[in-house]
Structures are given as structure tokens and as C-alpha cells.
Amino acid sequence: MFPKGTKRKFSDPVEEPASSGDQGPAAPPAAARTLSSSYSLQRQSLLDMSLIKLQLCHMLVEPNLCRSVLIANTVRQIQEEMTQDGTWQIMTQALAAAQCPADRLVATEVLCRQTETGAQPGQSPKPFPVVGLEEGYHSEEVVMEGEVETEVTMSPQLSTNSYLAGPFGMGPCWDEEDDDGDCEEEEEEEEDSEECMSEGDDADRDHLSADSRTGDQVFGTFEIKHPAPPPDPALEELFSDVDPSYYDLDTVLTGMQSTPKMGPYDLLESLSSHTPTALSSSSSCRSDLNELDHIMEIIVGS
Amino acid sequence: MEEESDTRKINNSFLRDHNYATEADIISTVEFNSTGELLATGDKGGRVVVFQREQESKSQPHRRGEYNVYSTFQSHEPEFDYLKSLEIEEKINKIKWLPQQNAAYFLLSTNDKTVKLWKISERDKRPEGYNLKDEDGRIRDPSTITSLRVPVLQPMDLMVEATARRIFSNAHTYHINSISVNSDLQTFISTDDLRVNLWNLEITDRSFNIVDIKPANMEELTEVITSAEFHPQQCHTFAYSSSKGSIRLCDMRLAALCDKHCKYFEEPEDPATRSFFSEIISSISDVKFSHNGRYLMTRDYLTVKVWDLQMENKPVETYQVHDYLRGKLCSLYENDCIFDKFECVWNGSDSVIMTGSYNNFFRMFDRNTKRDVTLEASRENSKPRAILKPRKVCVGGKRRKDEISVDSLDFSKKILHTTWHPHENIIAVAATNNLYIFQDKVN
């Protein structure tokens, strides 16, 4: 189970509050804004969940823009509310002061890290760009113990398919043939475009070196350091040969009556405990693996 | 409603232990043509299967015009976008029929990027008695030909062939979510997440962009277009829905670029039910004009709303599809079900509306009597030709015998696509890879 950021220490180490089946936290009346810790927990877990969703782009097919926009808007909403509460600043400071322990969720940390221009306390954050391109962001390169090979091999695939990094604002991902429209974004995206475009080897190498990149594709290098629990044979069996797009449904609801309800963290775990071939192999209608390898070679330029 | 016998299971042989069919067989769209004689389905594998209604025969009155497979063809193939290193899915997102103008049938089918016009025609005669070829097709030696004859058309077994007549491509940067044929029968629109393009059916190398909501800076993107449709009678009017729960009605006569709407339909949010999921559940997944052109119907995650075109500030009718899910939004967000795009459909007289739900349930709302019913499309729970039993979901507390509790709903069994015969009470419902056709009970 992945930790949920700073709020963890205020809560019982139980299943995520969201799984109690409640509706997501309703905004309490502004007048009596007493933040119950359970509300903050729910909100935090929703934030984490949303960030993970934004990162878990499909391997071969372009991510669904509508879905990404809706998730990003949700994140923005949470961020704004947390800023108004002052919770945002607290979390930011706490994370900055903390030692950045290895098992922290990179996404949350990255999100909370102040930009170099520095947001003044109380100032509402600029619209959460989801892109996260600012300087000062860096990704923590962490590697799954015991699953090193799979993790590493999977990532180049993720990042070389450059759509991965952030749903929009990243040149290759959203903005396709519209070159003129992208001029304004070029500055910000330069680094990322470079990252995206250089693809292959660069991404590979960058991937393996820790803390090396600034202005990085935040979401593209997202990896969790956590010893993976021994894979449940039932899970393995269910996951084998199932199209990735089924993970969302199969594993969380229908196929999983016998196992505890999975959250997105479990999902991430189980995904990464997979061989990259199983993960990237699509339904019988998609390109077969040979084609994929061939394409990868072209991209990687090896 | 009585269930018919032809439930089609395209590819049964790949069923696995937990009953999942090959993904390619998942039906992604269903559509009756304008007379109801034909029913087209598109699937994730890029195939289109067209069913035709049998002529009713006096000798078998109980077989009241059943639908049989008429034609099957591969409409779209998977493609690879080399520039972005991304696959373009072959899944058929929408099929729209053109009204019949001659002996052939025409339909538009689209995947994420390309719209194709297909002609489906019958051939039941073939010419025989060529001069230069013999019956096997081999060329005859001209020196052996001593007389000329006129080839004669001889009957042959009926053959239905589908040919791609037009291919409308390279006009969409984002994924096409809908197409709509204009009442002028000469133009159609294709809509992606950020743009609406207008095409002439005859011209494939040019399309006009009539709506563009792409912001200059993509980081500022907060709203996308989810669906668009032409008005059924006014050829200059179309409507498009957004992920923020609004609908814009546009008049193409006002300007070349219809970024300014004529009418803007949005219901103000109820502050009492506001949550972090409010925006997501307000996102409209389908918009449909009524046949009479006076109303608009929209489907968002939990409700179906009917809007009067003359009243923009609120819908005239709101129907709860599965309000019991309101308390489960967080879980549904987690497993992505909250992003499911359900369609909605009017019956021929605009008196009943229908939409799908989970657990293979679908709902019908009678606008006049205000009665509603929940039915299930499932082979296990109803026999062919049996009258469907209304279902009920119990929300909490004591569950009655036939009721299903919210927690035991199967969220992988969703009915996203349904269609209603233009004149009769015949509906087609797609449940994952199965197609169900239901008819009214005959007395």
C-alpha cells in the first residue's frame, strides 16, 4: 500500500477512506470550515488518486482527452480548496522540511514543491497546469526492489511513447500537427519537447539516473520505490493476457470479489509487477509484439 | 417487451473463464436506418455488421419481421501514427445512415480519426455470355470468335457487397466522438474533442472547421466537446455538448466560424449536492434532438434531461437513471466507471426516452405518464420470447426478493449503446459483445 503523503500520520493505517463507499468529500460550508481529519484524508486520497490517473496513460493509444481534462479539473479544484484552507502551504512546508523519504509518492511531493518564483502564502496557485513543467520539479528515480528489470524495461516504453508525460501542454502529446498554435508553449515545453522528441536513448538513460532532471516530464518518470508484495497467484492469473484497458474494471470490481478492494495504488503495483510484454500487448486486434519491437527499434534508434 | 430470438454472439470461441469475450467483439455503436429496415452495429475490431428485417410472411405470423445478418464488412483497420508513435484504434465510434435514395444503402462509419462512406448494394444477377471471355473468365482467342452475342443477365444467389465510396480523413487532430448527417443530405459534421468540421458528402479533400474551442495555450484547457448533432429539420442549426454540462446551439448562417452560440443551455448547479465529482458527473455524454425538432435530450452520468429549445436556463424534464450511484461516486471514480459515456435515444413519437445503465440494465421513461421501467438484457435472466420482467435496485435496508442491491451490481456489464426503431416499438441494445433486439408484445 502506498503512503498517502503527510496526512498519513494523522490517520489510522487502514484502507483508504474512499473505500468506505462514501461519496467524495462534499465541500463543507465556507463559514464553518472546520477541517475534520477524515475530510482532509478523503480529499488527499482523492488528490493522489487523480494524480495517478493522470499518469497512467494507456500504453499505445492516445489517452482520452475528455477524461484527462475532467481529472485535471478535479485536481485543480482540490488544489484551490486546499490553498484556501491553508492546508496547501502546510503540506508544502512539511514536505520541504521533510527528508524526502524514499517511500513518498513522488506526484504529491512534486505537486507541492514551490516554484522558484515562489507562491506567496495565501495566494491561490496558478491554474494547475497538470503539466508541471516548472523548474524545481524533479523526479525521484526509484526502482522497485525485486522487480528492477521489469520496471526499468517498462519505463523506456512509457517515456519513449511521449504522450505519457502529462496529458496536455506537452507538445507531442496533445498538440499534433498544429505547429503554429504551439509557439507560445514552446518555451515551457522546450525541455519537455526535447525530452519527448529525443525519446529513445535519452529517455532510457535519464530514467536510470536519479534526481538528474529538472523541468522534467514529471509524470513521465513516475516510479515508486516499494518492495512489491509477493504477487497473488489469483491476480497473476487474472492479469495474464488481459488487455490493459480491462484493468480498470476487472481488477477493481468484477474479478476481484475474493480479494480486498483494490485502490489505484494496488493497481499501480500490480501493473508494475507485470512483464512489459503483457502490459503492452493489446488485444488481438493490435500490433503484435514483433511489430512493437520493430517500432521500438526505430524510435530508440538502436 | 418481448425478447426476440436473435441475440448475436459474434465470436463465442474465445470466452474465458470469467466470461470475457474477445475485445474485438465488443459492440461500440448501434443504429437503425431511417426506415427501420436495417440495423447496423460497429464493434471494437472495426467491423460493421448490418442486419435486415425479414419481410413479414403470412405463413409465420409469430415471426414478426426478425432481423438477420445482411452484410458484414471490415470498415476500419488499426493504423499507426508514426509522428506521435501512437496507435489509432479501429474501433467504430459511430455509424449514421443516410436516407435511402436508390436501391443501395449508404452509411457513414467513423473511428477516432477517419470517416468513411460505405455503399451497401445487392447483386442478384450476373451477366453471362461474354464475347471475349468464356464462363470461367478465361480470355478467348479472338480468332475463334465467329459471331457476336449480347450478354444476358442471369439470376444468381444474392450477394451483398459493401464498398467504401468516400474516405474523409486527416481533418481531426483529436478523437472523433460523433458524426451527424444534415437534413440537406449533402453535408455532415464530424466532431472531436475540440473541433467540429463540416464536410460535403461528395468532397473528401476539404472540410470546413465550424467550431474550434482549442485554447491558445493548451494548459488552459478545461472543457471539451463531447457530442454534436444537426437539427433534424433545420439544416443550418446544430448543437454540441460539453464536458462541463452545457449545450450550445449554433446557427451556421451567422458566421463561418460558429464559436459564438445562438443559445446556451445550462442548468445552474445545485449547491446542496456539490462535491468534487460534480463537474465530472455533469459532463454530457450524449445529445439528441427529438424527432420533432423541438426538444433536446442530454445524458450525463446520473440523469437524462429534456430541454425545450426555447428555454435555456433549465431543462423541462429531468429523469434519474441510477441515483443510487450517487453515494458511490468515489469508487466509480477510482475504477473509471464515472467516465463511461452512456447514450440516450428517443422513440419515434418522442414520447418515450431510453438509456442504459450497469448490470446490463436499461431504463425507459415515458414522458407523458411519467412512469419508468428498468429492464435487463441478459440471457440468463430471461428466455427468448419471454416478456421482460421489470427490475429494481434496492438502495439500502431490506432487500426484497427480486431486487438487486447496489453492491452486487456488475459494473463491467454496461449498456452504453441503444437504438430505437424510427416508427415501431423495436429496440436494439448492445450489452458488451451481445446484441439484444426487443419488440413490443403482440396480442
TrEMBL record, chain A:
SERTA domain location: 39-86
Basic and acidic residues composition bias: residue spans: 204-213
Acidic residues bias locations: 174-203
GO cellular component: nucleus
PANTHER family: CELL DIVISION CYCLE ASSOCIATED PROTEIN 4/SERTA DOMAIN-CONTAINING PROTEIN 2 (PTHR16277), CELL DIVISION CYCLE-ASSOCIATED PROTEIN 4 (PTHR16277:SF6)
Protein name, per record: Cell division cycle associated 4
Domain of life: Eukaryota
Database matches in Pfam families: SERTA
Alphabetical list of PROSITE patterns matching this protein: SERTA
From TrEMBL, chain B:
The keyword Repeat is assigned to this record: yes
Top-level taxon in the UniProt lineage: Eukaryota
Coiled-coil regions listed in the entry: none
One GO MF term: protein phosphatase regulator activity
Protein's UniProt keywords contain Repeat: yes
Record family assignment: Belongs to the phosphatase 2A regulatory subunit B family.
Quaternary structure, from the entry: PP2A consists of a common heterodimeric core enzyme, composed of a 36 kDa catalytic subunit (subunit C) and a 65 kDa constant regulatory subunit (PR65 or subunit A), that associates with a variety of regulatory subunits.
Protein name from the UniProt record: Serine/threonine-protein phosphatase 2A 55 kDa regulatory subunit B
Species this chain originates from: Oryzias melastigma (Marine medaka)
